[in-house]
């Protein structure tokens, strides 16, 4: 895994708030995503997760713009392309055939006045490169994908979105996203507004689809339990920046940023002893009035004058291959500890990672 399928460098995204005013929602993000990996973007609401996810496919709303950086994909043919240099037609062909997105809120993601089969027809015809999709071919492909996500094509294809339950819509949305066999799938809060049993079913479905189709996955969530189950790598975001990234074991059982540790300390573990839960004091900063230095310093128990003055970039903590590295942006990372024991399966993953380092 020496050649990343997606390489993000110094990516910054801003939203215009007035004629000559803007706020930076994502700042200086560096990420590498390798083939077959599953990366979770975690953090509190408003930290920039969704904006970053939309930016990865240049799907930002009208007031949003990428102000700096590069987004380099390794395409199916092996060539590399900077997404920021693509023209409109190139982008249309790239989306859904090379990388696709499952948008937040399946309830509202479909056009309410057209049938599910027509959503598939639009996607297949507009985003495939040169292939002619007849009505029969569309129905065959759509039916195959719906069966893959355990939906009955005879029941779903001719239905309007409002005739499907929330779980059925989410499955149909996932099927639509993988219609052209993309290499990268970005999912924004894939289990939001679903009941627990349906969430469980969607998670299992994603496991099976990833195994069958082999896509690389980026999913956005504030649900740490979901991240622990679906991700093999995790990136923590705070105030628009990636402040820590590592394997699932690194982040959940050996965090080195006090914010990451604070998020985990606020969640009850499923197994083992029940610790006293601790919330993170204070609130995230306003994007219009960011503090000097580290953005987390007003809420951090380890903050010093240096933290209030200097903004720290990600620092590599391990000598593992880059696909499995652990990095953190904190001056006092050596003082951060989480008193929880890793489950046996995660411990074996860690041993494997160390053996490959």
TrEMBL record:
GO terms for biological process: peptide transport. Keywords: ATP-binding, Cell inner membrane, Cell membrane, Membrane, Nucleotide-binding, Translocase, Transport. Pfam families: ABC_tran (PF00005), oligo_HPY (PF08352). SMART domains: AAA. It comes from the Bacteria. The keyword Transmembrane does not apply. InterPro entries: AAA+_ATPase, ABC_Ni/Peptide_Import, ABC_transporter-like_ATP-bd, ABC_transporter-like_CS, Oligopep_ABC_C, P-loop_NTPase. It is found in: Cell membrane. Belongs to the ABC transporter superfamily. This is Peptide/nickel transport system ATP-binding protein. It comes from Glycomyces harbinensis.
């Amino acid at each position: 895994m020496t050649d990343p399928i997606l390489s993000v460098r110094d990516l910054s995204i801003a939203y215009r708030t007035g004629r000559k005013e803007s706020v930076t929602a994502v700042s200086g993000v560096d990420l590498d995503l390798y083939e077959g990996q599953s990366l979770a973007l975690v953090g509190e609401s408003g930290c920039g997760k969704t904006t970053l996810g939309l930016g990865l496919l240049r799907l930002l709303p009208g007031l949003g713009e990428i102000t700096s950086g590069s987004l380099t994909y390794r395409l199916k043919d092996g060539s590399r392309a900077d997404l920021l240099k693509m023209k409109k037609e190139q982008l249309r062909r790239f989306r859904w055939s090379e990388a696709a997105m499952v948008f937040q809120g399946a309830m509202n993601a479909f056009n309410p006045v057209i049938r599910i089969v027509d959503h598939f027809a639009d996607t297949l015809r507009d985003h495939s490169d040169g292939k002619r999709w007849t009505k029969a071919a569309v129905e065959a492909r759509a039916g195959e994908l719906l069966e893959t996500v355990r939906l009955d094509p005879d029941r779903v294809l001719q239905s309007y979105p409002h005739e499907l339950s929330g779980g059925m819509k989410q499955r149909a949305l996932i099927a639509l996203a993988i219609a052209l066999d993309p290499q990268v799938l970005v999912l924004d809060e894939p289990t939001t507004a679903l009941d627990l049993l349906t969430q469980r079913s969607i998670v299992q479905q994603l496991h099976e689809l990833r195994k069958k189709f082999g896509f690389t996955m980026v999913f956005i969530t504030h649900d740490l339990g979901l991240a622990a189950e679906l991700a093999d790598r995790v990136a923590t975001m705070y105030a628009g920046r990636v402040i820590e990234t590592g394997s699932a074991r690194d982040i959940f059982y050996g965090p080195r940023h006090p914010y990451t540790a604070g998020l985990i300390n606020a969640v009850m573990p499923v197994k083992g002893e029940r610790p006293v839960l601790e919330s993170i004091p204070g609130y995230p900063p306003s994007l219009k009035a960011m503090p000097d230095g580290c953005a987390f310093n007003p809420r951090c128990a380890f903050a010093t004058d240096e933290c209030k003055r200097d903004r720290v970039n990600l620092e590599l903590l391990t000598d593992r291959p880059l696909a499995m590295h652990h990095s953190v942006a904190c001056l006092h990372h050596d003082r951060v500890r989480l008193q929880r024991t890793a489950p046996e399966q995660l411990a074996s993953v860690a041993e494997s990672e160390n053996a490959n380092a």
